[in-house]
Amino acid sequence: IQSGIKDAKKRQQYQDGLALSIYRQGENALKNNDMKTAIALFTRISTIVPNTETGATGLYDAIALYMQASQWDAAIASIEKFQQLYPRHKYHTDVSKKLSVAYLNSDQGVKAAQEFEKLARTDSDYDVKAAALWKAAELYEAENKSNDAIKAYQDYAKNFRKPYTQRLEAMYKVAQLHQSNKADRPSRDWYQKIIKADEKALNNARTEQSRVITSTAYLALARHEHTRFDKIKLTLPLKNSLTKKKAAMQNAVKLFGKASVNKNYEITTEATYSIASIYKDFSQSLLASDRPDNLNQEELDQYEILLEDQAFPFEDKSIEFFEINLSRVKEGLYNNWIQQSHKQLIGLFPVRYNRQPKLDEYIATLQ
């Protein structure tokens, strides 16, 4: 047994010496600016005497030289060899990072994303893990791998709560990707999660970007409720359908109102226009609703008067909100929602809003 141990020691010493000798040759070639020979020598060590520390060092240096020369395919092959030969080496994590970069630079986005995901699971540094998972999600998204992107962004939102804004953005990405996939229910669920997260957030954690994301989440939910409101028709018996439509109207108005809280220009003008449109549509729906067919003329006239009494206050509210949007012109603001508000007012209140040369001139200067 002792003889066998001695033989193994001698064999290892011989291999270490051979590895070091080849490595020195590689260093000399590098000093003479002969990168090709240096790479060949550094790589050769891991081929003829792989069970040496110098073999791992030589292959690691060869990888670095390949990457320096932008020889990405050769770098990838050498990295994969390193991972196979030296799975527990101290350079293993760094080599994995290099593989991500090499895949990225060789236009292999999906493979790069997979490596970044592995890095997010194995690295010990919080910031490195977070950055790697975010990069993986972005790459999956860029490669139109929406399911993988959704999973990566979900994992980010679950595991990396700071910084708050980036976590909220990850949640927003999940909602958007579901929406792009026509998965409306999951999309709305994630918009709800954004709102709940914002409700729990400390004021000093919120940023301008997080506020826009939260407002956009409210806006998305409000649009859905607006669509639901539009689909509800006022049919007989009116009391039943009216209750449903009024509830949908109130929910939509409430959500559009919350979307406006952070006063983002585009969101607020859309929300204001939408609230006005809802009130207008509710008023018109009342007036156009089915009439009971068992009324005589006098009863029908009374019924019409009652409907008008209910409908016109909502038309007044509609005008009020369209006017709020139009008033923003005085603040130097103008966009499609303000323009559409002006057009609606011309139809609702032509005596006043169909004759505004000064306003039209002012709008023209903003366009």
Rg is 34 Å
How large is the share of residues in beta strands? under 5%
What is the average of the pLDDT values? 93
Overall shape: it is elongated
- Give start-end ranges of low-pLDDT stretches: none
Number of helices in the DSSP assignment: 17
The protein's oligomeric status is: single chain
Please describe the biggest sheet, giving its number of strands, its sense, and whether it closes into a barrel: none
What is the rounded distance between the termini? 92 Å
Helix content: over 70%
Main structural class: mainly alpha
Helix and strand pattern:
HHHHHHHHHHHHHHHHH
How many beta-strand elements?
0
Describe the structure.
The protein starts with a helix and ends with a helix. It has 367 residues and is mostly helical. It has helices at 2-31, 35-48, 53-68, 72-85, 92-105, 109-122, 126-142, 146-159, 164-180, 184-200, 208-231, 238-259, 265-288, 297-327, 336-348, 350-353, 357-366. The mean pLDDT is 93. Helices cover 80% and strands 0% of the residues.
